[in-house]
Amino acid sequence: QGCVFDDVLVDRIMETLRKNPKITQVRLASALDVSPCTLQRKMDELRAAGKIERMGGKRYGYWNVY
């Protein structure tokens, strides 16, 4: 059951990052209605898998989605 939720969450993260690459993780967690810790863990997995990459710094950077 957790896998289905994870897949849906990953799809929603990727879709949101494509629409708004400059969104912060705090706002992204809020928009997706998940805890910041859950979002951080998923984004770390996506980064490790090479699906997303942070470009630039925290303040003026953006997300590349592959």
According to DSSP, the number of beta strands is 2
Work out the helicity level.
Answer: 55-70%
Q: For the largest beta sheet, what order do the strands appear in spatially?
A: 1-2
Q: Which structural class do the helices and strands define?
A: alpha+beta
* Average predicted confidence as pLDDT: 92
Q: Please state the CA-atom Rg, rounded to the nearest Å.
A: 11 Å
> What is the CA–CA distance across the termini?
26 Å
Describe the structure.
The mean pLDDT is 92. The chain is α+β, with helices and mostly antiparallel strands and 66 residues long. It is 59% helix and 12% strand. It starts with a helix and ends with a strand. It is globular and about 30 Å long. The longest helix is centred in the N-terminal third of the chain and has 18 residues, at 2-19. The protein is built from three helices and two strands; from the N terminus they run αααββ. The chain has helices spanning 2-19, 25-32, 36-48; strands spanning 52-55, 62-65. α1 (2-19) packs across α3 and α2 packs across α3 (36-48).
Give a brief outline of the structure.
This protein is an alpha+beta fold.
List the defining traits of the structure above.
alpha+beta, 3 helices, two-stranded antiparallel sheet, 66 residues
How do the helices and strands line up, and which of them pair or pack?
Layout: H1 2-19, H2 25-32, H3 36-48, E1 52-55, E2 62-65
Antiparallel strand pairs: 1-2
Helix pairs in contact: 1-3, 2-3
